[in-house]
User: Which sequence fits this backbone?
């Protein structure tokens, strides 16, 4: 790994102009720490190209000198995936200025977006065209398409539409030698061997810089019904999901598990929030049912589903949002959990999956095991139950020091990940590996996976200039 020479920095400054190049500490500062404030890095310059040709040139110049590049979108990584290391050698490559929706074709159900397009901007553009892009998450106002592709993002609609991998039809990317991979055409059939586009999805910028993606759109929603339901435990929640899917499978787009402890944190830390149910339930689920345009509202069917679930003891109290404002308020409760946890104090965060059917049992027994082993810790397990993906966050004992995660977090994490691995699960269901989980992937990834990952990285990026220190254990 080399530091950029003054000559290289001058060439980059000339190439990108004042809008696209900065070494001003104040301009760089916001992009050198991760969202949760856990990782702090340094960079020699901030590069913000406006066109893919500029990205090609940047990568060529850096490859020639072996200077590392750290691609960055909205800087919302949960695993320090877009934060450079502390050496100061890296150049931060921000894709935020490449924010054009190159095309949006409602007939073909396709949108071609540059890497810097913000997710909510795409949502709005699709809606205007009578379509929608069916992937959403709490950070939609900052997260960019390039980052979502590069991390194979999930979110709260995976239940019906799958994660980013399923929604990407094609990729344009600059590979580590500066060559441009032009794979945007959405070919229904293409058997030319290795699928480079798929390889770049979830590669966390370690195999190249995604500059644009063709994305699948689906029909716009006619109307939606959003319910908040109290359940006794995660097993009952899973029972409820099956019960609802039996009669309205296609309609149920989101099914999110929220324990009382997480809801309480949101109510405490996020202004303007209130509990949907008069009597607090030990566990809650947020359910969204939708119907297509010109179809009747999904509400009566959802109401009937909840009523019959109540009769057979799967649901306690439940309420359906009376209007859009209330529906948004329910979603805000769910989407604010990370923020509330962050405000509350240190937590060791885990983004785990096991087989969907195993998650309710796993979650309950793993929480008990962690709380017994680490006195005073409190497990906050929430999220995408229908995907078998739970954010199994372990909050520090009350009154512990701010550096609890640094001191004890690794031991807690090791314990949790051992349980997940023993259950055949994954230590990263949707957030990726970044730098946070690198050591754990090295410990638990298995020889075949790690060997193949290292070989691919070495073949495509022999100088290791693309986002070094992330995803691929040395
Ligand atoms: C979510 O589902 C995000 O809210 C963040 O993936 C989860 O903060 C977390 O652990
Ligand atoms: Zn999540």
Assistant:
């Amino acid at each position: 790994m080399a530091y950029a020479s003054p000559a290289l920095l001058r060439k980059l400054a000339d190439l990108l102009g004042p809008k696209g190049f900065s070494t001003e500490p104040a301009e760089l500062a916001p992009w050198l720490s991760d969202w949760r404030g856990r990782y702090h890095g340094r960079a020699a310059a901030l590069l913000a190209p406006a066109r893919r040709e500029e990205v090609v040139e940047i990568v060529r110049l850096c490859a020639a000198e072996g200077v590392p590049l750290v691609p960055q979108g909205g800087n919302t990584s949960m695993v320090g995936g877009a934060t450079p290391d502390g050496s100061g050698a890296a150049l931060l490559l921000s894709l935020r200025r490449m924010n054009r929706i190159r095309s949006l074709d409602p007939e073909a159900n396709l949108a071609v977006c540059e890497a810097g397009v913000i997710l909510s901007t795409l949502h709005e553009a699709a809606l205007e065209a009578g379509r929608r892009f069916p992937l959403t998450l709490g950070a939609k106002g900052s997260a960019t398409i390039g980052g979502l592709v590069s991390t194979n993002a999930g979110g709260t609609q995976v239940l019906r539409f799958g994660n980013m991998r399923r929604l990407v039809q094609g990729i344009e990317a600059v590979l580590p030698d500066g060559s441009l991979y032009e794979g945007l055409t959405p070919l229904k059939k293409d058997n030319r061997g290795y699928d480079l586009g798929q390889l770049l999805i979830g590669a966390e910028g370690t195999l190249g810089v995604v500059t644009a993606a063709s994305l699948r759109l689906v029909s716009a929603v006619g109307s939606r019904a959003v319910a908040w339901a109290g359940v006794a435990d995660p097993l009952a929640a899973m029972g409820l999901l099956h019960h609802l899917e039996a009669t309205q499978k296609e309609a149920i787009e989101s099914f999110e598990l929220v324990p009382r402890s997480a809801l309480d944190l949101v109510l405490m830390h996020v202004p303007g929030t209130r509990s949907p149910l008069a009597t607090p339930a030990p566990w809650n689920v947020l359910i969204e049912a939708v119907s297509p345009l010109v179809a009747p509202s999904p509400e009566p069917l959802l109401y009937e589903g909840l009523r019959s679930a109540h009769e057979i003891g799967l649901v306690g109290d439940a309420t359906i949002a009376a209007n859009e404002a209330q529906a948004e308020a329910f979603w805000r409760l769910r989407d604010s959990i990370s923020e509330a946890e962050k405000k509350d104090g240190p937590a060791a965060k885990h983004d785990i999956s096991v087989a969907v059917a195993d998650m309710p049992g796993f979650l309950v027994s793993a929480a008990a095991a962690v709380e017994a082993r680490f006195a005073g810790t409190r497990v906050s397990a929430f999220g995408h139950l229908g995907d078998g993906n739970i954010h199994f966050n372990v909050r520090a004992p009350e009154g512990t020091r701010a550096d609890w995660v640094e001191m004890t977090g690794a031991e807690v994490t090791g314990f949790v990940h051992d349980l997940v691995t023993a259950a055949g699960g994954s230590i990263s269901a949707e957030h990726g590996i970044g730098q946070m989980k690198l050591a754990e992937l090295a410990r638990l990834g298995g020889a075949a996976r790690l060997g193949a990952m290292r070989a691919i990285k070495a073949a495509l990026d022999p100088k290791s200039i693309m986002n070094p220190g992330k995803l691929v254990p040395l």
